[in-house]
């Protein structure tokens, strides 16, 4: 769900912004067998466009950091927008939406008799469990429903003491997971546990004899035209079944549409109907917490109104309402009060828009433009102290920063040395963003980030960085003097600086 470490040196920051660890790039050409996205106006698919516009505006106004909004009705895109500065069509980290893909693969493997059933004991794949009286009772279903009863700490803070972060950092994640003490009877108590989803991925790889990615490509991705950009791998070699998959919003919608139509794609049954029904039905009551309070299926959440959803940290959602042939996809960086907004505000509003069609094409165009519109530039009013311009500040983590005199009005030229390479950036200081190619510092097909800056006073520079494909927003505050600089780093979901670094002039 998160990067593997909370406290990251700036030297590796740009790498980990894009990829939480090394994944695999898929290079084959994108093919959409049988179905490409048709577009339609909302009123033609049964929406009141006035109400739909209002629901999208309410979502925009109540959330902190939208990236994508995509609405599909009757297999057609009726609304699509990417929030500035993000362009549409870029792959995005699904975070825990990955869990729902893993669930689908479990259902397929059961149908192929590669896995006996959800009631199969985990000792089939992990024989050491048979030696433990309590853990020998663990079944596959307990992982699917997050009711394993193991001692686990995962509440959304994702600090260094978080159990999932510890698992991702552990050289033997399987042993780490099963070494946890039993705190309740298996099947009795729901507790959010991304480690359980990791183990589901291991079960799949042991059962199928191929990697999680290869099985997903053969059984789901290739048949319905999804092109996965990455699936994160643990250093032990297992693909991570609980997080790490990167898809575009359009491909997230493809997966959602597959579930909206009972696992059938055109005329081919991809996922067994029985599994779709069972896995998206209430299997465990969930307390009001990390993912929702309306109940849990097999790695799927129940919505607050109708249907079910895949949900990922930071506002990655695939909301599915089969009765309405409706799929809503959101990506973003929602880490505060607004995490549930894709369901409770956007999803609810979209549903309330269906039933009495009316047309307002101009309003629909305006709301899409509203999301993608850059802010009005605000000229800087601060005249920075020029005594530290042209000097190379070397920071204690090995990175270095040089500010050059502004090459144009409201533009600051920055040379950022990271990992032995130099990034030359012309950063706007007026509230807008510029896209920068980060070269080797990421593994996504387009290794870009968006930068913006401002002077807080004549010696304090604030730099904001948004990485393409990740939910986090990073802000760096640099306090300059003639010969020294202090660097404080903030990430969107943490209330305090997660890193403080000192720098000194290394050459004038």
Give me the secondary-structure topology.
Layout: H1 10-18, E1 38-39, H2 49-62, E2 66-73, E3 76-82, E4 92-93, H3 98-111, H4 140-144, H5 163-169, H6 173-178, H7 194-208, H8 212-224, E5 230-231, E6 245-247, H9 249-260, E7 264-265, E8 268-269, H10 273-279, E9 301-302, E10 308-312, E11 316-321, E12 326-332, H11 341-352, H12 361-372, E13 392-395, E14 400-408, E15 411-418, E16 421-428, E17 434-437, E18 448-457, E19 460-467, E20 473-480, E21 484-491, E22 499-507
Give the beta-strand count: 22
**Residues in β-strands, percent:** 15-25%
How does the overall form come out from the CA principal axes?
globular
> Low-confidence runs (pLDDT<50, min 5 residues)?
1-34
Number of helices: 12
Structural class: alpha+beta
Estimated helix fraction:
10-25%
Q: Which strand order spans the largest sheet, edge to edge or round the barrel? A: 16-15-14-13-22-21-20-19-18-17
Largest sheet: 10 strands, antiparallel
Q: Kindly state the mean pLDDT as a whole number?
A: 89
| Spatial extent as radius of gyration | 24 Å
Q: Whole-Å distance between the termini?
A: 43 Å
């Amino acid at each position: 769900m998160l990067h593997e470490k909370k406290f990251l040196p700036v030297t590796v920051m740009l790498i980990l912004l894009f990829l939480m660890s090394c994944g695999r790039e898929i290079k084959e050409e994108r093919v959409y067998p049988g179905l490409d996205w048709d577009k339609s106006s909302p009123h033609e698919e049964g929406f009141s466009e006035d109400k739909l516009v209002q629901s999208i505006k309410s979502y925009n106004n109540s959330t902190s950091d939208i990236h994508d909004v995509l609405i599909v009705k009757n297999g057609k895109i009726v609304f699509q927008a990417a929030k500035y500065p993000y362009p549409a069509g870029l792959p995005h980290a699904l975070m825990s939406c990955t869990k729902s893909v893993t669930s689908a693969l479990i259902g397929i493997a059961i149908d192929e008799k590669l896995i006996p059933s959800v009631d199969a004991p985990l000792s089939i794949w992990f024989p050491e469990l048979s030696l433990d009286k309590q853990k020998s009772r663990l079944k596959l279903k307990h992982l699917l429903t997050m009711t394993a009863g193991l001692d686990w700490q995962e509440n959304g803070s994702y600090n260094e003491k978080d159990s999932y972060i510890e698992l991702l950092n552990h050289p033997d994640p399987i042993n780490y997971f099963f070494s946890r003490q039993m705190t309740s009877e298996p099947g009795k108590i729901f507790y959010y546990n991304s480690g359980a989803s990791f183990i589901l991925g291991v079960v799949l790889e042991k059962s199928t004899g191929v990697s999680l990615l290869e099985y997903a490509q053969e059984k789901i991705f290739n048949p319905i035209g999804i092109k996965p950009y990455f699936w994160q791998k643990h250093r032990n070699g297992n693909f991570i079944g609980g997080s790490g998959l990167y898809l575009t919003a359009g491909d997230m919608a493809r997966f959602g549409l597959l579930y909206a139509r009972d696992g059938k794609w055109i005329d081919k049954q991809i996922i067994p109907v029985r599994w779709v029904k069972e896995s998206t039905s209430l299997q465990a009551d969930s307390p009001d917490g990390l993912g929702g309070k309306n109940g849990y299926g097999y790695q799927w959440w129940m919505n607050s109104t109708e249907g079910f959803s895949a949900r990922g940290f930071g506002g990655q959602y695939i909301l599915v309402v089969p009765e309405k042939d409706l799929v809503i996809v959101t990506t973003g960086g929602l880490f505060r009060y607004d995490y549930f907004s894709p369901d409770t505000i956007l999803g609810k509003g979209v549903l309330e828009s269906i039933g009495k069609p009316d047309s307002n094409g101009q309003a629909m165009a305006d709301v899409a433009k509203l999301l993608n519109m850059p802010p009005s530039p605000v000229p800087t009013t601060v005249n920075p102290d020029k005594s530290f311009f042209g000097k190379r500040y070397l920071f204690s983590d090995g990175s270095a920063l040089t500010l050059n005199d502004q090459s144009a009005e409201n533009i600051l030229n920055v040379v950022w040395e990271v990992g032995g390479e130099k990034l030359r950036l012309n950063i706007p200081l007026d509230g807008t963003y510029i896209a920068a190619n980060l070269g080797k510092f990421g593994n996504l097909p387009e290794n870009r980030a968006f930068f913006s800056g401002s002077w807080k006073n004549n010696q304090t520079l604030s730099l904001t960085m948004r990485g393409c494909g990740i939910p986090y927003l990073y802000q760096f505050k640099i306090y300059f003097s003639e010969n020294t600089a202090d660097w404080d780093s903030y990430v969107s979901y943490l209330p305090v600086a997660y890193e403080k670094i000192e720098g000194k002039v290394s050459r004038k």
